[in-house]
Amino acid sequence: MKLFKMFTIFITLASIQLSAEVVHYSQLPEEIQRTVVPDMEGKVLINDL
């Protein structure tokens, strides 16, 4: 039962991540680039803007 609950949480997190819009850092205008921090792959979540 505990495993099932963990699996459900994992699926929920994955779907949240997929629904969040992601752009590459280099695609952003310069003034926005100064205010956001990209992750290791250079991706920025739209939600952070």
Rg is: 15 Å
Strands side by side in the biggest sheet: 1-2
- Indicate the proportion of strand residues: 5-15%
Helical region count?
2
Mean pLDDT: 71
Distance between the termini: 39 Å
Unreliable stretches, pLDDT < 50, 5 or more residues?
A: none
The overall strand count is: 2
Helix/strand-derived class? alpha+beta
Rough outline: rod-shaped
Q: Please summarize the sheet with the most strands.
A: 2 strands, antiparallel
Classify the helix fraction into a percent range: 40-55%
How do the helices and strands follow one another from N- to C-terminus? HEHE
Topology:
Elements: H1 2-19, E1 22-24, H2 30-33, E2 43-45
Annotation keywords:
49 residues; single chain; 45% helix; 2 helices
Quick summary of this structure?
The chain has 49 residues and is an alpha+beta fold.
Note down, in words, how this protein is organized:
- The protein is α+β, with helices and mostly antiparallel strands and 49 residues long.
- Helix content is 45%, strand content 12%.
- The chain is built from two helices and two strands; from the N terminus they run αβαβ.
- It has helices spanning 2-19, 30-33; strands at residues 22-24, 43-45.
